[in-house]
Amino acid sequence: MTFEPKKSSIDRSMGPAVGRRAEGGGGVPTSNSAADYTVLIAEDEAVVAMDLDLLAQESGATTVIVAPTVAEAGIAVRANAIDFAILDISLTDGDIYEVADELRDRGVPMAFHSAHANPDELSSRYPSAHICGKPSSPHILQDLLRLAIHRV
After folding, report:
1. Which of 59, 103, 108, 109 lies 20 to 30 A from 78 at CA?
2. What Gene3D superfamilies does the record tag this protein with (predicted)?
């Protein structure tokens, strides 16, 4: 059985907060502009994942990939040009470190959004990553997303 992580895309013609859901599919982004920006969300709590999905879309992401497991996040990273990642550390099938290592090696900016974050350990292993405890203010993640998407 093959799994393709869940994607959502925004239809900008109807305004910034109107979206359409698409199961899988979609092309691999070819540019790093705000017009074509992909965010990976590795989160196994459905309500948190939905909130982060909406937050990413409102911040300007054109494609959001929600992966509730490490395996699905790995598939998403290998199949898509990820521009930014929001990662929970502890998912149902293990810790996200292998995926985070791959993102770091590709130079993808990321934020850890987790109740299991050890800031000293994460800062040492991922010096450019942002670390947000859970729960955290949505404004912090929204600011990070907007800075990354719009290169402000």
Report:
1. 59
2. 3.40.50.2300
